[in-house]
Amino acid sequence: MTPNHHPSEATLVAYVAGALGEGLSLVVASHLAFCAACRDAVASGELIGGSLLDSLAPETVAVATRERVLERLATADDWKPSRARALDPALPAPLARYLDRDLAAVPWRPLGPGLRQFVMLPASRTRANLRLLRIAPGRRLPRHGHVGTELTLVLKGSYTDELGQFVRGDVAETDSTIVHEPVSDRDEDCICLIATEGLLKFESAIARIVQRFTRM
Amino acid sequence: MYALFAESFGAGMWLPMAAALDGRVPMTVPRAGAAAVPPLFAQLMQAVVARRDQASFMALFDYYAPRVKAYLKRLGASDGLAEDIVQEVMLTVWRKADSYDPAKAAVGTWIFTIARNLRIDALRRERHPTLDPTDPLLNPDPEPLPDRQVEASREEEQVRSAVRALPEDQAKVIMMAFYDGKSHGEIAAELALPLGTVKSRLRLAFRRVRGVLGEVR
After folding, report:
1. Is residue A113 a contact partner of residue A139, using CB atoms and an 8 Å limit?
2. Whether the Cβ atoms of residue A55 and residue B4 lie closer than 8 Å to each other
3. What's the CATH number of domain A1-216, 3.90.226.10, 2.30.110.10, 2.60.120.10, 3.40.50.10770?
4. Which one of A48, A122, B109, B129 is at 20 to 30 Å from A54 when CA atoms are compared?
5. Domain range B166-216, CATH class
6. Could you list the pLDDT tens digit for every one of the 217 residues in chain B?
7. Are the Cβ atoms of A76 and B4 closer than 8 angstroms?
8. Percentages helix, strand, coil for chain B, rounded to the nearest 5?
């Protein structure tokens, strides 16, 4: 099934350039597993990188570096990628590898009625917060806006907001121009992978207080 | 493309490269102005995969290592760190040569992705999660056409011209993303532009560049 909602082209370009940061990049890489159209866009973007590499004025590489590489070629063949454990087949490989556990084994923390999260990367000044969010069926999230870019990938179930319905494989990209009030659909828990730059801006005071205690 | 080569190495550079291939590719050794240069790299890669041919690999090293180093320094690596990362990038090229698919990308494009990922590991102490082409979840890409290999290298050339032809304001944001590793937010702050303007310039630039690839993609 082909996703209907994708990261913006600007975000795909930043991903390709290596300018996106770890959390947002993981969401994009995971979406690519579902989306041939975005894989194709990323492949075109990488051509830009390749052509820039070719047009750079070369910098002299030390003779010692060249010799060292030549020396290491013989032993480099012994190198084998480490494949520690089987990855959860229900998850896109980049996420499965990152999470290093099955989705069923995620240690969820309660975040409010019908809402649980697992923080994978806490936010820092320069880094987006990365987390899994698990929303009970029919749960309405408090209405909020965004400071920076937020990417949400649906892994299971679905939700609906002002931008449409989002199902497995879809990515919602929101930024400071968007205020929304997502509601999970009624049939099953909705599980999302979310990377957020900056803090969310909740409209209600109670949600803001909760935010202070949950690093949301 | 050839002009860039000639500037950097002089035409004599071709002799060792062609020699590394044992005269296996007489038809594609480039003539001046020919667009046949990148397929030569693809053939060097094939020699690396098929015969673990060190001479072919070192010919790739001599062309790409100085460019990878320039890329890394441009992105803020010190000379010493850049040398270290260059070493790792080129050894990764050697180790993972068999995962290079000439139908999907030109050699330079593939090496770019390796350099980008290792740079992020080393400089930002972050990871750059990437697609796993063996992911069982993947719904398969359409089969590449038989002449994709030639296409892949021709595309790189087309993209290079398209980037050169971008309007100043669009070229600027592309360069800041690729060469300075700046996020949309950082670009917006530095150019004192609204975030939306930066994103729309990136989008326009990207569409224009993709446009030259036409029906192929």
Report:
1. yes
2. yes
3. 2.60.120.10
4. B129
5. mainly alpha
6. 333 333 344 344 444 554 555 544 433 333 333 344 556 888 999 999 999 999 999 999 999 999 999 999 998 899 999 999 999 999 999 999 988 988 888 899 999 999 999 998 887 666 677 777 667 676 656 555 556 566 777 788 888 889 889 999 999 999 999 988 888 888 999 999 998 899 999 999 999 999 888 644 4
7. no
8. 70, 0, 30
Mean pLDDT across A22-49: 93
With contacts defined as CB-CB under 8 Å, which chain B residues touch A40?
Answer: 141, 217
CB contact under 8 A, B86 and A54: no
- ipTM confidence score: 0.85
Q: Are residues B72 and B86 in contact, defined by beta-carbon separation less than 8 angstroms?
A: yes
Pairing of strands A144-146, A183-184: unpaired
Q: How many CB atoms lie within 10 A of CB A107?
A: 7
Contacts of B174 in chain A (CB under 8 A): 13, 48
Residue among B8, B83, B120 whose CB faces A61 most closely: B83
> Considering the domain B2-128, what is its CATH architecture?
Orthogonal Bundle (1.10)
Query: Where do the structural domains in chain B lie, given as residue ranges?
Result: 2-128, 166-216
Q: Which residues of A touch B135 (CB under 8 A)?
A: 33, 92-94
A4 Cα to chain B: minimum distance (Å): 15
A45-54 in b/e form (b: 16+ CB < 10 A) is bbbbbbbbbb
Q: Which amino acid is at B12?
A: G
Q: Per residue in A150-173, is it b (16+ CB within 10 Å) or e — as a string?
A: bbbbbbebbbebeeeebbbbbbbb
Cα–Cα dist B71/B76, whole Å: 9
β-bridge pairing A129-135 and A115-121: antiparallel
User: Closest to A9 (Cβ–Cβ): which among B119, B131, B207?
Assistant: B207
CB atoms within 10 A of CB B141: 12
